[in-house]
Structure formats: C-alpha cells, structure tokens
C-alpha cells in the first residue's frame, strides 16, 4: 500500500471521527452533567442511600475551589507570558518552521508532547499559542487538527515527565501520609521508607522508551490524519477570528493624567519582580530537591513574574490579563461538577469496587495493563491530574506487592492510563478550547482517533516492558 493511499485512508477516518463528534459529542458542560448522572446512579446502586449520595455530592461541590483558581491562573498567566514580545518572538520563530498543512499539524503535535514532558502547564498554554500562530502562517492547515494537536501532550506523555503528580508524590517524603508509606514499604519494609525515587519511575529506561514510542507514533498519526484540500477547514471557515499577533499590538493609550502616570512606568513592576524572584529563589533553594518545589503555585508565580517583567508597565500587563480572562469561564463553570464527582466516587467507595474488580482479573504479567485500564476508566469521571493517586495508591500498591510486580512501573502504568483518559474527556481541553474559540466536539474527532490507536500500544508497552523489571523496585 502506497504512502498516499495510507494517507488518504487515515484522513478519511479522521474526517469520519470528526463528523461523528460534531454530530453526537455534546458541549463539555453537558458531558460533565451526563457524567454526574452516571456516577450518581452508580452510587445509589452501591449504597442504596439517597441521603448519603446527595450529601456526598453537595459536600464535594466546592472542594476544588483552590484548584479551580490555580487552573484559571495557569490559563491567564500563561497567556500573559505568551503575549509578551520576547516570548512571542520565539513562538513566531517556531511557527515559521512548518510550511505545509500536514507538516504544520505534526509539528504542533510534536512540540506539545515534547514540552509536556518538562511541564504540562507550560505545554498546555504555549502549544495553544503556537498552534494559533501556525494557523496564521499556514492558513490552509486544518484548524481543528492544529487545535487537537496542541492538546496531545496531556493526552500522552505528560504524566511520564517532570511534572507527573503520582511519580513526584511517591518520591517526596511529605507528599503522602505515613499510613500509605507503610503500605508502599511492604512486608518487612522491603522498600525503604515507602519512597520510590524518580529513577524507578519516570527515569526508568522503560519509561523513556514508552515516551519515545508515543512521540513517534502520535506525530506520525497526526501527519497522515490531518485533512488537506477541500476537506480541511481553516479558522476562517469555522468562523473563528485569529485576531492580530501580539507583536502587532500598539502600546496602551494614555490620557496623560497624573493618575495614569504610574500605569505607564516600570518602577512598580521592577519592585514586584524583585520581590517575587526572591520568594521563588527561597522556595527552590530550601526544597529537598528543586523538582519538588515545582507545583501549580510556583508555576503560576513564575509565569506572572516573567509576564510582569516582559510587559514592563502595569498598563501592558493589565491589558494582557484582561484579554486572557474570558478564557477561564469554562473552568469556573465546570470544575465544581467534577469536584462533586470525585467526592462521590470516593465516599461511595466506587473506586475501591472498580479497583477490586480489576485486581481480581490480574496476574503478575497482566497487572500493569490492568492498572492502566483502571486509571483510564476512572480518569474519565475523575480527571484530577494525578491528585487522586492519594486515594488509589493504597490498594494499587498493595496489589503490586501481592502480585510481586515492580512498584515504580505500576506508577508509570497508572500515569500512562490516566493520560489516555484526557483524549476522550474534555475536562483538560477547556483551557485551550477557550483560547481557540472552539468547542470540544470540534477537536474530539481527532483526539478519539489518537486514543483508539494509542490505547492498545500503551497496553502492549506496559505489559512487555514490565516483564523486564524485577520486584519490588
């Protein structure tokens, strides 16, 4: 079969998936409401107590408020940094690399995945800005495919990288309660202190191989799946305005009044940058390891500090924040619903029931694949970015001891499965979708195709590579 034939077939499959998604996939908020119905019904079946279910749902509704604000600030501060002239010049240089529509889609996919290994928050925002600039420069590239490509880092390798929550929790002494550390330590404290270093999770050669395979596979898939010619839809065809490049934006206007004098001077921003830089320096130097200090709070402060420094004046900074703020409405509306789902699943012990079912089907050889499947399945309803590992670590790690499976590889398999869920769950798409001016249905045809191709490959990888690792870690 010629490459052109394969190319045409994949493009047609992608087009069919996209058409199906546009027809049948609801808006992300409706998806959250439908998930609520499914989980509530399952909880009622499990507990048989309406009052308990309703109280658990209502009690969890506001539990993600700090995380909601953190995610809103990831969007805002990331956009603020990307719209500064120095940073956007770099984005513009990168966007000038691809010249053809399919190459443009593959380039954005590769950048999104490679950058997500270093930090998922950086990847999420900067890949989105890169995709928009590529769309300006390669107008015949399919805008939906470009936008979907910008998201693929969170749908593949982010959790296998430096910001992977579960791996960082396992390596950080104070990140998990002593009771969980005791379970991880196993019989006779075979794992000292219940700590699993990063060398036994994300820096295993098996983990690095899985990252390389996903990079190559997904980049190639998006190249051949991207529609061209009449099948491609540009941003203009979709009714999306790309606006002007930040490099072309004029300076904020000033009326010259005394009250506005401070808004157009650098003195106060210089003080803020010095203060914030000192705080960040102390945070990283006093941490047990620099990577342990990298979290959403420090990431947001880094972004904000760089944004203040590069914008220079309060007027430029305030304009950038104002332009970025409309992009957070979906996060504010939907995250409370997912907080309720997470609370209900835990309090109704649905997660333990699901895990117990999967473990009952496992052997030493198949357990990593079962962990990946379980993580992906639960991730559809509780898209927590790894924070739910605190709840799941006890029984996942206990089963790993019982079955004599490498503990670090179980963490890696869990992370690989969790990332897969993001390809068919619009929770993490919300920030980039708002920046793109699209809905979940516009990109999920492509992400669903990646899921169908990548999922079986991940299951093979975690199974085959897991056979090369000894117990316990």
Overview of the molecule:
The chain is mainly alpha-helical. The chain has 21 helices and no strands. The protein has helices at 3-24, 28-47, 50-60, 65-82, 85-95, 101-118, 120-137, 143-151, 165-171, 178-185, 205-225, 267-285, 296-311, 314-324, 329-347, 350-360, 367-381, 389-403, 407-421, 430-436, 440-466. Helix 6 runs parallel beside helix 8 (143-151) and helix 16 runs parallel beside helix 18. The longest helix is centred in the C-terminal third of the chain and has 27 residues, at 440-466. The two termini are 44 Å apart. The model has no long low-confidence stretch (mean pLDDT 85).
Describe the structure in brief.
The protein has 473 residues and is an all-alpha fold. Helix content is 67%, strand content 0%.
Which structural traits does this protein have?
single chain, 473 residues, mainly alpha, 21 helices, 0% strand
Total strand segments = 0
Number of helices: 21
How large is the radius of gyration?
A: 23 Å
Q: Which stretches of 5+ consecutive residues score pLDDT under 50?
A: none
The secondary structure category is: mainly alpha
């Amino acid at each position: 079969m010629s490459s052109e034939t394969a190319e045409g077939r994949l493009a047609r499959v992608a087009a069919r998936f996209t058409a199906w998604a546009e027809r049948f996939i609801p808006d992300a908020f409706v998806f959250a409401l439908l998930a609520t119905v499914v989980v509530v019904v399952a909880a009622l079946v499990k507990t048989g107590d309406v009052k308990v279910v309703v109280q658990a749902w209502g009690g969890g509704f506001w539990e993600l408020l700090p995380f909601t604000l953190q995610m809103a600030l990831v969007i805002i501060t990331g956009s603020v940094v990307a719209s500064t002239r120095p940073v956007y010049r770099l984005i513009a240089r990168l966007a000038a690399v691809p010249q053809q529509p399919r190459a443009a889609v593959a380039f954005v996919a590769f950048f999104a995945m490679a950058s997500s290994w270093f930090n998922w928050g950086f990847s999420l925002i900067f890949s989105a800005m890169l995709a928009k600039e590529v769309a300006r420069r390669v107008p015949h590239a399919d805008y939906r495919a470009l936008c979907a490509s910008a998201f693929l880092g969170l749908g593949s390798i982010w959790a296998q990288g430096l910001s992977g929550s579960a791996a960082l929790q396992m390596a950080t002494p104070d990140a998990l309660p002593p009771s969980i550390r005791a379970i991880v330590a196993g019989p006779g404290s075979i794992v000292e202190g219940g700590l699993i270093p990063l060398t036994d999770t994300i820096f295993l050669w098996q983990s690095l191989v899985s990252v390389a395979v996903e990079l190559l596979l997904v980049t190639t898939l998006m190249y051949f799946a991207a529609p061209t010619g009449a099948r491609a839809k540009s941003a203009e065809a979709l009714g999306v305005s790309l606006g002007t490049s930040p490099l072309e934006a004029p300076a904020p206007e000033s009326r010259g009044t005394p009250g506005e004098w401070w808004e157009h001077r650098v003195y106060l921003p210089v003080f803020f940058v010095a203060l914030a830089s000192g705080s960040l320096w102390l945070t990283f130097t006093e941490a047990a390891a620099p990577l342990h200090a990298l979290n959403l709070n420090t990431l947001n402060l880094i972004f904000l500090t760089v944004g203040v420094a590069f914008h220079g004046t309060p007027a430029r900074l305030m304009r950038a924040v104002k332009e970025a703020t409309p992009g957070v409405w979906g996060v504010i509306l939907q995250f409370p619903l997912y907080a309720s789902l997470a609370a209900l699943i835990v309090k109704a012990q649905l997660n333990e029931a699901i895990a117990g079912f999967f473990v009952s089907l496992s052997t030493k050889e198949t357990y990593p694949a079962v962990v990946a499947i379980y993580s992906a399945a639960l991730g559809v309803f509780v898209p927590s970015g790894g924070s739910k590992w605190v709840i799941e670590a006890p029984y996942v790690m206990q089963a790993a001891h019982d079955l004599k499976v490498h503990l670090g590889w179980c963490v890696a398999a869990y992370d690989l499965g969790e990332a897969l869920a993001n390809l068919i769950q619009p929770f993490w798409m919300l920030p980039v979708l708002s920046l793109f001016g699209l809905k979940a249905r516009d990109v999920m045809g492509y992400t669903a195709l990646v899921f169908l191709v990548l999922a079986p490959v991940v299951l093979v990888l975690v199974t085959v590579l897991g056979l090369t690792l000894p117990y316990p870690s």
